[in-house]
Queue: 2 jobs
Job 1
Amino acid sequence: MEGAEIEKSDESWHDMFMKKEQSEPMNPSHIFCPNLACCARGQIGAGNIVIHDRQRQRSRCKACRKTFSANRGTMFEGLRKPTPLIVIVVTLLAYGCPVQAIVHVFGLDERTVSGQLA
Ligand SMILES: [Zn+2]
Protein backbone atom coordinates (compact mmCIF):
# COMPACT_ATOMS: atom_id res chain seq x y z
CA MET A 1 0.00 0.00 0.00
CA GLU A 2 2.56 2.57 1.14
CA GLY A 3 5.19 1.25 -1.22
CA ALA A 4 2.89 1.81 -4.16
CA GLU A 5 2.16 5.32 -2.98
CA ILE A 6 5.82 6.24 -2.90
CA GLU A 7 6.42 4.73 -6.32
CA LYS A 8 3.57 6.73 -7.80
CA SER A 9 4.97 10.02 -6.49
CA ASP A 10 8.52 9.12 -7.45
CA GLU A 11 8.26 10.55 -10.93
CA SER A 12 7.07 14.00 -9.92
CA TRP A 13 9.90 14.31 -7.42
CA HIS A 14 12.37 13.21 -10.05
CA ASP A 15 11.20 15.95 -12.41
CA MET A 16 11.45 18.50 -9.63
CA PHE A 17 14.95 17.33 -8.70
CA MET A 18 16.20 17.55 -12.26
CA LYS A 19 14.86 21.08 -12.58
CA LYS A 20 16.61 22.11 -9.39
CA GLU A 21 19.92 20.63 -10.53
CA GLN A 22 19.82 22.60 -13.74
CA SER A 23 19.40 25.95 -12.06
CA GLU A 24 22.13 27.78 -10.17
CA PRO A 25 21.31 27.81 -6.45
CA MET A 26 22.78 31.29 -5.96
CA ASN A 27 22.13 33.14 -9.17
CA PRO A 28 21.04 36.68 -8.27
CA SER A 29 19.71 37.30 -11.77
CA HIS A 30 16.95 34.75 -11.06
CA ILE A 31 15.94 36.34 -7.77
CA PHE A 32 13.76 39.38 -7.35
CA CYS A 33 13.32 41.72 -4.41
CA PRO A 34 10.45 40.54 -2.17
CA ASN A 35 10.20 43.87 -0.36
CA LEU A 36 6.71 45.22 -1.05
CA ALA A 37 7.88 48.79 -0.51
CA CYS A 38 10.77 48.52 -2.96
CA CYS A 39 10.67 50.20 -6.35
CA ALA A 40 12.63 47.30 -7.88
CA ARG A 41 10.31 44.63 -6.46
CA GLY A 42 9.47 41.77 -8.78
CA GLN A 43 12.09 42.69 -11.37
CA ILE A 44 14.17 39.70 -12.35
CA GLY A 45 17.55 40.33 -13.94
CA ALA A 46 17.37 44.10 -13.37
CA GLY A 47 20.77 43.98 -11.71
CA ASN A 48 19.51 45.25 -8.38
CA ILE A 49 20.03 41.92 -6.56
CA VAL A 50 23.50 41.03 -5.33
CA ILE A 51 24.73 38.15 -3.21
CA HIS A 52 24.92 39.35 0.38
CA ASP A 53 26.09 36.21 2.20
CA ARG A 54 26.82 33.12 0.15
CA GLN A 55 27.20 30.92 3.22
CA ARG A 56 23.81 31.79 4.62
CA GLN A 57 22.29 32.02 1.14
CA ARG A 58 21.21 35.61 1.51
CA SER A 59 20.79 38.17 -1.21
CA ARG A 60 20.59 41.94 -0.98
CA CYS A 61 18.64 44.43 -3.02
CA LYS A 62 20.66 47.46 -4.04
CA ALA A 63 17.52 49.55 -4.47
CA CYS A 64 16.14 49.21 -0.94
CA ARG A 65 19.26 47.71 0.75
CA LYS A 66 17.19 44.94 2.33
CA THR A 67 18.56 41.43 2.63
CA PHE A 68 16.46 38.33 2.21
CA SER A 69 16.82 34.59 1.89
CA ALA A 70 17.90 33.40 -1.53
CA ASN A 71 15.52 30.49 -1.11
CA ARG A 72 12.51 32.77 -1.20
CA GLY A 73 10.04 31.68 -3.79
CA THR A 74 11.66 28.30 -4.22
CA MET A 75 10.33 24.91 -3.21
CA PHE A 76 12.13 25.19 0.13
CA GLU A 77 10.40 28.35 1.23
CA GLY A 78 8.51 27.91 4.44
CA LEU A 79 10.25 24.71 5.42
CA ARG A 80 11.90 25.09 8.76
CA LYS A 81 14.25 22.14 8.34
CA PRO A 82 17.65 22.92 6.83
CA THR A 83 17.81 22.35 3.09
CA PRO A 84 20.44 19.55 3.14
CA LEU A 85 18.18 17.46 5.36
CA ILE A 86 15.26 17.95 2.99
CA VAL A 87 17.47 16.81 0.12
CA ILE A 88 18.50 13.69 2.05
CA VAL A 89 14.91 12.90 2.97
CA VAL A 90 13.66 13.30 -0.57
CA THR A 91 16.53 11.22 -1.94
CA LEU A 92 15.74 8.42 0.51
CA LEU A 93 12.09 8.59 -0.50
CA ALA A 94 13.06 8.46 -4.16
CA TYR A 95 14.95 5.23 -3.49
CA GLY A 96 11.89 3.76 -1.84
CA CYS A 97 12.91 4.21 1.78
CA PRO A 98 9.80 3.81 3.96
CA VAL A 99 8.45 7.08 5.34
CA GLN A 100 8.33 5.54 8.83
CA ALA A 101 12.07 4.83 8.73
CA ILE A 102 12.88 8.43 7.80
CA VAL A 103 10.51 9.76 10.47
CA HIS A 104 12.25 7.55 13.04
CA VAL A 105 15.86 8.31 12.03
CA PHE A 106 15.55 12.09 11.65
CA GLY A 107 12.85 12.67 14.26
CA LEU A 108 10.57 14.32 11.70
CA ASP A 109 6.82 14.60 11.58
CA GLU A 110 5.35 12.01 9.23
CA ARG A 111 3.24 14.67 7.49
CA THR A 112 6.39 16.74 6.87
CA VAL A 113 8.04 13.76 5.18
CA SER A 114 4.95 12.84 3.19
CA GLY A 115 4.64 16.48 2.17
CA GLN A 116 7.91 16.16 0.28
CA LEU A 117 6.17 13.84 -2.15
CA ALA A 118 3.19 16.05 -2.82
ZN1 LIG B 1 14.45 46.05 -3.04
Job 2
Amino acid sequence: MSVQMFQRGGAIMLKTVRWSGWPLLAVVIGFIVTGYATSGRYGMGKLIDARTAMAVHKLLHLPLLVLLLVHALPAMYLAVRRWGLFAKASRIKCNPESQT
Ligand code: HEM
Protein backbone atom coordinates (compact mmCIF):
# COMPACT_ATOMS: atom_id res chain seq x y z
CA MET A 1 0.00 0.00 0.00
CA SER A 2 1.38 3.42 -0.92
CA VAL A 3 2.08 6.06 1.72
CA GLN A 4 -0.54 8.36 0.13
CA MET A 5 -3.23 5.67 0.33
CA PHE A 6 -2.24 4.95 3.94
CA GLN A 7 -2.49 8.65 4.88
CA ARG A 8 -5.73 9.17 2.92
CA GLY A 9 -7.24 6.12 4.61
CA GLY A 10 -6.27 7.58 7.99
CA ALA A 11 -7.80 10.98 7.15
CA ILE A 12 -11.08 9.32 6.10
CA MET A 13 -11.10 7.25 9.31
CA LEU A 14 -10.53 10.37 11.43
CA LYS A 15 -13.37 12.20 9.63
CA THR A 16 -15.60 9.17 10.22
CA VAL A 17 -14.78 9.16 13.96
CA ARG A 18 -15.43 12.91 14.28
CA TRP A 19 -18.65 12.99 12.23
CA SER A 20 -20.16 9.89 13.84
CA GLY A 21 -19.39 11.15 17.38
CA TRP A 22 -22.13 13.80 17.30
CA PRO A 23 -25.11 11.71 16.12
CA LEU A 24 -23.85 9.02 18.52
CA LEU A 25 -23.99 11.50 21.40
CA ALA A 26 -27.56 12.50 20.40
CA VAL A 27 -28.65 8.84 20.19
CA VAL A 28 -27.04 8.03 23.57
CA ILE A 29 -28.85 10.96 25.22
CA GLY A 30 -32.12 9.88 23.57
CA PHE A 31 -31.52 6.30 24.71
CA ILE A 32 -30.95 7.35 28.33
CA VAL A 33 -33.89 9.77 28.40
CA THR A 34 -36.35 7.29 26.86
CA GLY A 35 -34.97 4.49 29.06
CA TYR A 36 -35.62 6.40 32.28
CA ALA A 37 -38.93 7.74 30.93
CA THR A 38 -40.29 4.18 30.62
CA SER A 39 -40.14 3.94 34.43
CA GLY A 40 -40.71 7.66 35.04
CA ARG A 41 -37.43 8.01 36.92
CA TYR A 42 -35.44 11.23 37.39
CA GLY A 43 -38.35 13.31 36.12
CA MET A 44 -37.96 11.92 32.58
CA GLY A 45 -41.60 10.81 32.65
CA LYS A 46 -42.60 14.47 32.36
CA LEU A 47 -40.82 14.75 29.00
CA ILE A 48 -42.45 11.78 27.27
CA ASP A 49 -45.12 9.24 28.25
CA ALA A 50 -44.01 5.70 29.14
CA ARG A 51 -45.51 3.91 26.11
CA THR A 52 -44.03 6.31 23.55
CA ALA A 53 -40.73 6.27 25.46
CA MET A 54 -40.59 2.47 25.24
CA ALA A 55 -41.39 2.51 21.51
CA VAL A 56 -38.67 5.12 20.80
CA HIS A 57 -36.22 3.34 23.12
CA LYS A 58 -36.65 0.10 21.16
CA LEU A 59 -36.19 1.96 17.85
CA LEU A 60 -32.91 3.46 19.08
CA HIS A 61 -31.16 0.11 19.66
CA LEU A 62 -30.10 -0.40 16.04
CA PRO A 63 -28.86 3.19 15.35
CA LEU A 64 -26.96 3.04 18.66
CA LEU A 65 -25.23 -0.19 17.72
CA VAL A 66 -24.44 0.92 14.15
CA LEU A 67 -23.15 4.36 15.20
CA LEU A 68 -21.09 2.89 18.04
CA LEU A 69 -19.38 0.51 15.61
CA VAL A 70 -18.88 3.24 12.96
CA HIS A 71 -17.37 5.48 15.66
CA ALA A 72 -15.37 3.04 17.75
CA LEU A 73 -13.87 0.73 15.10
CA PRO A 74 -12.03 3.46 13.13
CA ALA A 75 -11.06 5.13 16.45
CA MET A 76 -9.49 1.88 17.64
CA TYR A 77 -7.83 1.34 14.25
CA LEU A 78 -6.29 4.84 14.44
CA ALA A 79 -5.13 4.20 18.01
CA VAL A 80 -3.39 1.00 16.93
CA ARG A 81 -1.84 2.95 14.05
CA ARG A 82 -0.65 5.69 16.43
CA TRP A 83 1.06 3.03 18.52
CA GLY A 84 3.09 2.25 15.38
CA LEU A 85 2.01 -1.38 15.00
CA PHE A 86 1.12 -1.03 11.28
CA ALA A 87 4.32 0.91 10.63
CA LYS A 88 6.33 -1.93 12.16
CA ALA A 89 4.47 -4.48 10.03
CA SER A 90 4.88 -2.43 6.83
CA ARG A 91 8.64 -2.07 7.49
CA ILE A 92 8.90 -5.81 6.94
CA LYS A 93 6.94 -5.70 3.64
CA CYS A 94 8.40 -2.46 2.18
CA ASN A 95 11.55 -2.18 0.14
CA PRO A 96 14.33 -2.12 2.80
CA GLU A 97 16.48 0.27 0.68
CA SER A 98 13.79 2.98 0.89
CA GLN A 99 13.75 2.82 4.72
CA THR A 100 16.04 5.05 6.78
C1 HEM B 1 -21.60 6.15 23.21
C2 HEM B 1 -20.40 6.53 23.42
C3 HEM B 1 -19.68 7.64 22.69
C4 HEM B 1 -20.07 8.91 22.36
C5 HEM B 1 -21.41 9.55 22.64
C6 HEM B 1 -18.95 9.55 21.70
C7 HEM B 1 -18.95 10.84 21.22
C8 HEM B 1 -17.86 11.50 20.69
C9 HEM B 1 -17.82 12.86 20.24
C10 HEM B 1 -19.01 13.82 20.29
C11 HEM B 1 -16.57 13.11 19.81
C12 HEM B 1 -16.04 14.46 19.27
C13 HEM B 1 -16.02 14.45 17.73
C14 HEM B 1 -15.37 15.73 17.20
O1 HEM B 1 -14.25 16.04 17.59
O2 HEM B 1 -16.00 16.39 16.36
C15 HEM B 1 -15.77 11.94 19.98
C16 HEM B 1 -14.45 11.81 19.66
C17 HEM B 1 -13.71 10.66 19.79
N1 HEM B 1 -14.17 9.43 20.20
FE1 HEM B 1 -16.04 9.05 20.87
N2 HEM B 1 -17.90 8.66 21.62
C18 HEM B 1 -18.30 7.48 22.22
C19 HEM B 1 -17.58 6.30 22.33
C20 HEM B 1 -16.27 6.12 21.89
C21 HEM B 1 -15.53 4.89 21.95
C22 HEM B 1 -16.10 3.57 22.50
C23 HEM B 1 -14.29 5.15 21.43
C24 HEM B 1 -13.10 4.24 21.24
C25 HEM B 1 -13.14 2.98 21.07
C26 HEM B 1 -14.25 6.55 21.05
C27 HEM B 1 -13.17 7.20 20.50
C28 HEM B 1 -13.12 8.53 20.17
C29 HEM B 1 -11.91 9.22 19.71
C30 HEM B 1 -10.52 8.59 19.56
C31 HEM B 1 -12.29 10.56 19.47
C32 HEM B 1 -11.37 11.70 19.04
C33 HEM B 1 -11.20 11.76 17.54
C34 HEM B 1 -10.22 12.90 17.22
O3 HEM B 1 -10.67 14.02 17.05
O4 HEM B 1 -9.02 12.63 17.18
N3 HEM B 1 -15.46 7.11 21.34
N4 HEM B 1 -16.59 10.95 20.50
